[in-house]
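Entry 0007
Protein: enoyl-CoA hydratase
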Amino acid sequence: MTDPSPVQPDGEITLTVDGHVAVIHISRPNKLNSFTIPMVEQLESHLAVIDDSEDVRAVIVTSAGDRAFSAGADIKAFSQLSATRMWSTWIRRGHALFDKLAGLRQPSIAAIDGNAFGGGLELALACDIRVMATDAKVGLSELGIGTLPGWGGTARLQKTVGVARAKRMIFTSLMVDAETALNWGLVTDLAERPDVVAKAREIAEQIATRAPIALQMTKQIIDGQSGEGLRLTLEALGSAASSATDDFVEGVTAFRSKRPPQFSGSFDDPGPRDVLHG
Ligand SMILES: CCCCCCCCCCCCC/C=C/C(=O)SCCNC(=O)CCNC(=O)[C@H](O)C(C)(C)COP(=O)(O)OP(=O)(O)OC[C@H]1O[C@@H](n2cnc3c(N)ncnc32)[C@H](O)[C@@H]1OP(=O)(O)O
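Output (structure tokens):
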């Protein structure tokens, strides 16, 4: 957790880029970092900036305060809307927003440095990798208030932990602790709460040393369907082999020179190259 900036009543989501790592910071700590529409709008614009960036190679999502990563959508806000307004402003928009996060070229890491409820866990599920505080709990609590995980979390949870565990969590609004989350594959890493962001940063920096184009292709393949994954793999290998990206040349050259590679992320299409003897 980082110290919260002066509290904005409608909350605030900021974006900072440090080298190849972008950090999205959610701050509405007095309301457990629950999402308002202005925060949704800010996140939409931040994701557009990240998607356009050739410098950003990894994204961290973290939060302010010390009580929760996020308590999800602002219940008081959306419950005052008509059903149609609720659909357009909250469900459809929030779903598209988290699809955008999940679909970023660059891998994302959720630094779950507090409890995550409902849309808060859906946000973390839209990230590729999740680091969780050892004393936190997470759950999709929406059915407990008469709605449903409407921001993509229903499908993502099932893909992540399997059908039976997803049903157990969603149908009973089960909040799982860190050990269970790790055992179920909901998160990949645990850390003491003060160290969660540092752990996420460590992973982000490792990702940032990879060849960006190869990495982005790999992310697309993993996120595709199995058959689609195979097609994408062959396509990616084909394009990498026939017109080796500068990074592929650099990767092989660095290996042969016994030095760390310096990947540029550029895609130069010079036609076939003899990367092994050149
Ligand atoms: C099938 C048809 C459906 C139709 C309806 C469609 C609805 C459209 C939905 C659109 C979005 C869909 C996807 C996302 C959904 C969600 O995220 S729903 C919300 C899920 N979140 C929760 O269920 C958590 C709610 N909060 C709590 O249960 C408790 O606050 C807590 C987390 C257990 C903490 O309790 P406690 O320690 O006692 O602290 P509190 O006093 O309760 O909270 C401190 C202050 O924070 C405010 N707050 C907490 N959570 C929220 C929230 N989600 N929204 C708004 N405000 C929240 C809380 O009110 C306190 O504020 P003050 O009273 O002003 O101090």
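Curator remark: The chain has two domains: 12-208, 212-257. Strands lie at 12-18, 21-27, 58-63, 68-70, 108-112, 115-117, 129-133, 137-139, 176-177, 189-191.
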